[in-house]
Amino acid sequence: MKALSLLTLVAVSGLAALPALAQKNVEAEKPVAAAEPSTLVVGDMAPPLAVESFVKGTPIKAMEKGKVYVVEFWATWCGPCRKAFPHLSKLQEQYKDKVTFVGVNVWEEQSYTPETIEKVKTFVESQAEKMAYTVAYDGAAGKMRTTYMEAAGQDGIPASFIVNQDGRVAWIGNPLDPSFDSQIEAVVNKTLTIDASTASKAREDLKKRSAARPLMEEFSKKMRAGETDAAMEIADKVIALGGEYGQQLAGFKFGYLLQNKGSKEAVAFGKTAYEACAKDSPMLLNQFAWTIVDPQGSVTEKDLDFALMCAGRAAELTKEKDGAILDTLARVHWTKGDKAKALEIQKKAVAIATPEFKEDLQATLKEYEGK
């Protein structure tokens, strides 16, 4: 499995797999208050760390100005959260005193009891060095859930908030997103610009999420009822709105079309989705490109120019610091016949690859060198 092909599998394996990179505990939801909730977007001052207690690491009384923090939300029942723990630990080790990572347990149970925190503590202990950073417990009051997750319109976990040296939210998203690492680096190096236009765009994106949420629920109902055509019409509306939900359904529809209608129709849709919502999503762009050039894939009509546009854009968005995405870009060049360029990029991919990808990427490099 190479080049984030997990996302491709998510897309083609059906609706049940759609939340594979961000899960929501429906049973743990609380009734929505009647009052208009506060909002939290990139550029806003980060709310305080109002947790019930800290279960691992040194308690943090307040986020200090001049320091960078990553506030990450998780739950014991969340599979993707467990996948993120080792990577967060690696980043904590990499940045040491420059960045403080805080994992906040949230959405743990419908009805919190005194036993809930004991369950969380036992779980954290079982993770040992997989969670080698500060861990906190939101608890029944759910202050962090309200001021961070709900305020930011985040309804899936894992979810991370990067807080810069000025105490402002610099990035919100999934820590499994390829751009997560580069965003932390940009914040640490103070190269990430957050201005009025950034905050304005973030507020527009939050509005899009709010508008898309009921459509997403209707889409799920139609899919569960087997009303696929009606579901795809709803998906098109969400995709047109753009944003994270649009990107999710664009990836799902791309895989659905590939599986049920063929590669020509899937790629044609991908080109439409590129402008609608994909061009700012490294994961989705990588999915499009890799699906087209995957030597073991089912795409018969390979639009290599489109694949190169997607792969190149994904590499640009991640500042060429994601080995899996560079692996895809190298494969596109290889398939197009530019062997020298493919070798050059694949060597870069191997050099920066994370442990879970390194062996596969090295095997691909040997394949290119052998030929």
Task: List key phrases describing it.
Serine Threonine Protein Phosphatase 5, Tetratricopeptide repeat, alpha/beta, 371 residues, 6-stranded mixed sheet, 2 domains, Glutaredoxin
Note the topology.
Layout: H1 5-12, E1 53-56, E2 68-74, H2 79-95, E3 99-105, H3 114-127, E4 134-137, H4 143-150, E5 159-163, E6 169-173, H5 179-188, H6 196-224, H7 228-241, H8 243-260, H9 263-276, H10 282-293, H11 304-317, H12 323-336, H13 339-352, H14 355-370
Parallel strand pairs: 2-3, 3-4
Antiparallel strand pairs: 1-4, 2-5, 5-6
If you had to describe this structure to a student in words, what would you say it looks like?
The protein is an alpha/beta fold. The protein folds into two domains: 23-173, Glutaredoxin (3-Layer(aba) Sandwich); 211-370, Tetratricopeptide repeat domain (Serine Threonine Protein Phosphatase 5, Tetratricopeptide repeat, Alpha Horseshoe), CATH 1.25.40.10. The chain is built from 14 helices and six strands. The protein has helices at residues 5-12, 79-95, 114-127, 143-150, 179-188, 196-224, 228-241, 243-260, 263-276, 282-293, 304-317, 323-336, 339-352, 355-370; strands at residues 53-56, 68-74, 99-105, 134-137, 159-163, 169-173. Strands 1-4-3-2-5-6 form a six-stranded mixed β-sheet, with helices on both faces. α11 packs antiparallel against α12 and α12 runs antiparallel to α13. The two termini are 21 Å apart.
